[in-house]
Specification:
Keywords: Metal-binding, Oxidoreductase, Zinc. The strands form three sheets. Strands 3, 4, 5, 8, 9, 16 and 17 form a seven-stranded mixed sheet that branches. Strands 12-11-10-13-14-15 form a six-stranded parallel sheet, sandwiched between helices. A four-stranded antiparallel sheet has the order 1-2-6-7, with no helix packed on it. It contains eleven helices and 17 strands. It is α/β, with parallel strands linked by helices and about 400 residues long.
Length: about 400
């Protein structure tokens, strides 16, 4: 059977399309033609409209040991149109606009039915090179070699296959280049303030690391009504950028004289911040964030991805005596199918800022330029358009 070049008459058949394939760690992606198999039961094949580059893509692009694996199709912040569906898929149909997510929501397990968790038990999060239900790939190159999946999305391709538990149907009226941001980073940051920490009106927040996720935490804290939002970063330019997302104060670790960052924040806040967020992925910063969190009710939320095997060391006496909370937050505690539409509504109502996160836009052919921009710290989010126009 000859693979189809486009979606016309392609239902149930393989599709031949372009993809940016990561062949070797740290090397530029290779634009090549691949074959995308039809969806299996509980799966959806999606035509990607646009995708964004997240720092997690960079981490796994550089990773030489498992779960780094090659050749692979990276990308996990995207929006697309349903091209076809497999058996037992009822919640979307051909032509629907959807956002694929690395987090699943099966709707059936105890976690999905509970308001307390977004960690689906039936299809748990893991960094797998395959589809979640079958442990097989839907991608091959023109030589028949298997191309591995990434975070159950793999959006650096014109067509991808995603499990229905990882697909959220959205309003097609939302601008695609903005909606795609909610597939990972912005949702994670906003959700961490909104869902995980439940930041209260009038509270004080400290954010360690002012990349896209840290700034999204600031945006979430602003929406929740926090009155003081302190950003901690070694790049002083981030303060000016962060002001539009609600930052009120800035701490540069290099300019704290002989004090630690936690000591400075404790002095600034008269006892510590109500909520602290670690958005870099360093055990030492988790410890600093916990140290400057207010005793009695303070919450420290970990969002940063540290290198495998890293350990956080905290004095057991402080844990016992301080009454503070330390917690992790995957995808900001959001349930994708129910919370992403809520965030998009807030964007449409001009409450949630998304436009301000998009600093660059490139064509699919120039995807390696997006990598350069993010690695060099020149952008927040670079949106990659699949259109040739």
């Amino acid at each position: 059977m000859d693979p189809e070049k486009s979606s016309s008459g392609s239902r149930g058949k393989p599709i031949r399309c372009r993809a940016a394939v990561s062949r070797k760690p740290g090397e530029p992606l290779v634009m090549e033609e691949i074959i995308v198999a039809p969806p299996m039961p509980h799966e959806v094949r999606i035509r990607i409209i646009c995708t964004s580059l997240c720092h997690s893509d960079i981490i796994f692009w550089k990773m030489k040991d498992f779960p780094g694996i090659f050749p692979r199709i990276l990308g996990h912040e995207a929006i697309g149109i349903v091209e076809s569906v497999g058996e037992d898929v009822n919640e979307v149909t051909e032509g629907d606009t959807v956002i694929p997510t690395f987090m699943s929501q099966c709707g059936e397990c105890a976690d999905c039915r509970s308001t307390k968790s977004n960690l689906c038990t039936k299809l748990p999060f893991k960094v797998s090179p395959f589809m979640p239900r079958y442990d097989t790939s839907r991608f091959t190159d023109l030589n028949g070699e298997v191309l591995y999946h990434f975070l159950f999305v793999s959006s650096f391709t014109e067509y991808t296959v995603v499990d229905i538990a990882h697909v959220t149907k959205i309003d097609p009226a939302v601008t695609p280049s903005r909606a795609c941001l909610l597939g990972c980073g912005i949702s994670t940051g906003v959700g961490a303030a909104w869902r995980t920490a439940n930041v209260e009106e009038g509270s004080t927040v400290a954010i360690f690391g002012l990349g896209s996720i840290g700034l999204a935490v600031a945006e979430g804290a602003r929406l929740c009504g926090a009155t003081r939002i302190i950003g901690v970063d070694v790049n002083q330019q981030k303060f000016e950028i962060g002001k539009k997302f609600g930052l009120t104060d800035f701490v540069d670790p290099a300019n704290c004289e002989n004090k630690s960052v936690s000591e400075v924040i404790i002095e600034m806040t008269g006892g510590g911040a109500d909520y602290c967020f670690e958005c870099v992925g360093l055990a030492s910063l988790v410890q600093e964030a916990y140290a400057c969190c207010r005793k009695g009710w303070g919450k420290t939320v970990v969002l940063g991805v540290d290198k495998p095997g890293s350990q956080v060391s905290l004095p057991s006496g402080e844990i016992l005596h301080s009454g503070k909370n330390l917690m992790g937050s995957l995808f900001g505690g959001l349930k994708p199918k129910s919370d992403i539409p809520l965030l998009l509504n807030r964007y449409m109502d001009k409450e949630l800022q998304l436009d301000e996160f998009v600093t660059h836009e490139v064509r699919f052919e120039d995807i390696n330029k997006a990598f350069d921009l993010l690695i060099e710290g020149q952008c927040l989010r670079c949106v990659i358009s699949m259109c040739n126009e």
